Amino acid sequence: MGEPLDTRAAQAEAVIDRLQREYPDPEISLDFSNRFELLVAVVLSAQCTDERVNKVTADLFETYDGPEDFASADVDDIADDIDSITYYNSKAGYLHDAAERIIEEHDGEVPDSMSALTDLPGVGRKTANVVLQHGHDLTEGIVVDTHVQRLSRRLGITAEETPEKIERDLMDGVVPREHWKNYTHWLIAHGRDTCTARNPDCEECVLEDVCPSSKLDHDVDLADGSEW
User: Fold this and answer.
1) Does 216 map to a domain?
2) Number of domains, the chain
3) Would you state the pLDDT for residue 225?
4) Residues annotated as binding site?
5) Is 145 tagged catalytic?
């Protein structure tokens, strides 16, 4: 069992207040110039670093210009062009088939609804959320990647374990809707800079005094509202 809802909401508020000051201009780290390129990049980013994806898509987007090129290409050729990406064979198939579906069912345009996006091959709710937020400027949920999953639990904001359950929990009165989009970016930035998976730097953490998972030897009160 986790903390009561009001306690977790207060904790989320304290975390957001500090991280938005630490990272005032959060941005997506994937490179793209249109909605379809965004979709491709996010599909490729599953269990792969954004840095690696950006290196691959720099050439990929020169070779394939839009869904028509992906749909008409041989899947094996796409796979060869993304073979440094994790699960490149599966992802090549997803990109080819998603491009076909976009052409056949959406007039070549990336759809702007959660249901239509998640109907595309290789697109789950996380990918759809990213495309909606950064491609269509629509926020229907919270993107829960590995950083958001890890830090939300470490910070006592949720006790849920799976991305799907964490997202529902955070949206249900824990994270204010106006922060759904940036919550992800703040936690990703903090997870990369400070609260890493294997060796969190608690001594340099702006959240250390309100973090129930701190490695430092002192008592921590959730969302005590202290300044830093």
Assistant:
1) no
2) 2
3) 43
4) 195, 202, 205, 211
5) yes
**Domain check: are 173 and 121 in the same one?**
no
Q: Looking at the structure, do residues 93 and 55 belong to the same domain, yes or no?
A: yes
Residue 107 lies in a domain: yes
180 Cβ contact partners less than 8 Å away, ≥ 6 residues apart: 139, 141, 142, 171
Please tell me the predicted confidence (pLDDT) of residue 2. Answer: 72
Residue 190 lies in a domain: yes
Out of 50, 97, 112, 145, which one is annotated catalytic? 145
pLDDT for the residue 146: 94
Q: Is 126 designated active site?
A: yes
pLDDT means over runs of 10, the chain (228 residues): 88 98 94 98 96 98 98 98 98 98 98 98 97 97 96 97 97 97 97 95 96 80 46
Domain containing 177 — which CATH number?
1.10.1670.10
Annotated binding site for [4Fe-4S] cluster, which residues? 195, 202, 205, 211
Name the one residue in this structure whose structure tokens are 């070779």: 63
pTM for this entry: 0.90
Q: In this structure, are 44 and 108 located in the same domain?
A: yes
Range of the domain at 68: 35-135
Q: Which of 81, 126, 169, 181 is catalytic?
A: 126
